[in-house]
Structure formats: structure tokens, C-alpha cells
Design a protein that fits this description.
The complex is a heterodimer of chains A (about 120) and B (about 170).
Chain A (H helix, E strand, L loop, with lengths): L2 H4 L10 E5 L4 H12 L4 E5 L8 H7 L6 E4 L4 E4 L1 H12 L4 H14 L5
Parallel strand pairs in A: 1-2
Antiparallel strand pairs in A: 1-3, 3-4
Chain B lengths: L6 E2 L16 E5 L4 E5 H5 L4 E5 L6 H13 L7 E6 L3 H11 L5 E4 L4 H6 L2 E3 L7 E3 L2 E5 L5 E6 L2 E2 L5 H9 L2
Parallel strand pairs in B: 4-5, 5-6
Antiparallel strand pairs in B: 1-11, 2-3, 2-6, 4-9, 7-8, 9-10
The chains are: A alpha+beta (about 120), B alpha+beta (about 170).
């Protein structure tokens, strides 16, 4: 299959995870890295830099911040990259308590910063 | 006697009526966000009127959306979707400024979709920039091209009555 053929249908179209993101947003990239780390397929929706225009995000997670994800596997919809990373590790990781405490410590580092 | 020049465009070998419409995936922009979508994704929900227009901000684009908005072809059960080389950010601005929130626009800055359809158009005086030749494709659910209009002059505007007839015959 050639590169152009491969583009004919979005590879992510059937993904269970929907990621609301902003172009060049480091908090969003953090979630992307975590999804990649666990080989979780996701579909991206890009929103406006202007906070006030992000009603699409607010409708699903109650806030206008990105990143935000909806996971059809679990029915979870959530915002805030620290929380999302923790959620991914707990849901898709196999480290149990150990990975949980690891993600808690990372979360405290990231608190207070979202786009 | 008109005192302006309309440029004749050369004949081209483009995707024609009865052909299978080439599929493609590009960011599809609505008034709130954009996401990758393919033509076949849209066809799952019914026939598509794919409108190739000049970059957002050009006056033919404004005219085209005013006319399409007034005609409301979606009442015939089709989806009217635009495509230009403008970025998703420009598409969002256009959707807001033209008040066309019920429509979606594909963003194709590298003009690859136009090349698949054989309607690429080099822009004189804008080095390195090409865009689609103005064109309208009506694509049935089985991806067959049911109607096509491709500009033969620059500028040139779709025959909207003919388009509406084609859409109502689907």
C-alpha cells in the first residue's frame, strides 16, 4: 500500500479514545506521549486557541481546558493532563499500586498548568 | 463590449461523470473543531456535494457560500462540503464570518486532493502556490460521480441551477 493510499481513510476513525487538543500545546503532547506509550489508538479533534470558543470541550467534560479525553472503553470523559495521564496509567498500565504512586508524584509536578 | 479580461483555462483531463470519485482524508473543519475525515466517512451519511473553491478570502469563495447557503441544497438530502487550500484556522474564521455554521470545509494546503481529481490550478503571480480549479462534484453514496462542473475560465462560477437539478434528481 502506497503512502497516499494509506491516507485514504483516517487510521484513527475507529479509535475508542477521542482526544480534544490544541496545536502545539505541551500538556496535550504529554497525553499523546502517554497514549503512544501504551499503544492506545486515539482520534484527535483540534480546537481553538481562544478559551471562550471551546464550547465543544465544555459540553463533554464541563471545562474549556485541553487536553480532554473521552474513552469509549470505560465511558470516562475527563480534562487536565495530570489526571488524564494518571487515568491512562491506572486503566491501561499493569504496574498496579507502583505505577499509581508514580503517577501521583508526576501529577503534583504538573498541577496548575493547563492550556 | 467589456473592458476586462476573463482568462480561458486549458482543457484538462479531470475526474468525470460516471467515474469513481477518488477517496481522500483531510482535516474537516466545523464551527467548533477539526478532525481528520474521509470522503467515504461522509458518504456513509448520504450523497456529498464537494465544492472546490479558491482560498478563503477570495471573492469567488464568498459568492459561492452565499449562493450555496441560500439554495440550501441539504434539503435534498445531500451534504454540502467545501474544500480549499486554506488552513483550518482560516476555515473557522470563514465559517464564523459568513455565518455558515451548518457547513463543513476540508483543508488541503498542499492541494493533493485537487491533483487526485485532475483539477489543479497554478496561480499566476503567487509563486509556489496552487489551488483547485473551481469545481463542484456531486458524489453518490456508492462514490460514483453523478454530476460535475469544472471551471473553464478564471474567474468562473458554477451553474447553480444545473447543480440544483442534478441534486434533486439523485
Amino acid at each position: 500500500m502506497s503512502a497516499s493510499e494509506a491516507q485514504e481513510t483516517p487510521e484513527s476513525a475507529d479509535a475508542d479514545v477521542l482526544l480534544y487538543r490544541l496545536q502545539a500545546c505541551p500538556f496535550c503532547e504529554r497525553v499523546v506521549n502517554k497514549l503512544d506509550e501504551y499503544d492506545i489508538e486515539y482520534h484527535s479533534r483540534f480546537v481553538e486557541p481562544l478559551h471562550s470558543e471551546r464550547d465543544a470541550v465544555k459540553r463533554v467534560v464541563g471545562a474549556r481546558t485541553v487536553p480532554a479525553i473521552i474513552d469509549d472503553n470505560t465511558g470516562v470523559a475527563m480534562a487536565e493532563s495530570g489526571n488524564i495521564v494518571q487515568y491512562i496509567e491506572q486503566t491501561y498500565g499493569d504496574g498496579g499500586e507502583e505505577s499509581r504512586s508514580d503517577s501521583e508524584s508526576r501529577r503534583s509536578v504538573s498541577d496548575g498548568g493547563e492550556n | 463590449m467589456v473592458d476586462f479580461d476573463v482568462v480561458s483555462l486549458p482543457d484538462i483531463d479531470h475526474v468525470a461523470e460516471g467515474d469513481q470519485a477518488p477517496n481522500f482524508t483531510r482535516p474537516l473543519v466545523n464551527d467548533e473543531y477539526w478532525e481528520d475525515a474521509s470522503l467515504t466517512d461522509l458518504l456513509d451519511d448520504g450523497p456529498v456535494v464537494l465544492v472546490f473553491h479558491p482560498m478563503d478570502g477570495a471573492f469567488p469563495t464568498t459568492y459561492a457560500w452565499q449562493e450555496l447557503d441560500e439554495r440550501a441544497l441539504e434539503e435534498y438530502g445531500v451534504q454540502v462540503v467545501g474544500l480549499s487550500i486554506s488552513t483550518p484556522y482560516e476555515h473557522k474564521t470563514t465559517i464564523d464570518e459568513r455565518g455558515i455554521e451548518r457547513y463543513q470545509l476540508f483543508s488541503d494546503p498542499q492541494n493533493g486532493v485537487a491533483r487526485k481529481y485532475g483539477i489543479e490550478h497554478d496561480l499566476d503571480g503567487m509563486a509556489g502556490v496552487e489551488e483547485p480549479r473551481p469545481a463542484v462534484y456531486v458524489v453518490g453514496e456508492d462514490r460514483t460521480v453523478e454530476y460535475v462542473w469544472v471551471a473553464s475560465e478564471w474567474p468562473d462560477f458554477p451553474d447553480y441551477d444545473e447543480l440544483e437539478d442534478a441534486v434533486s434528481d439523485l
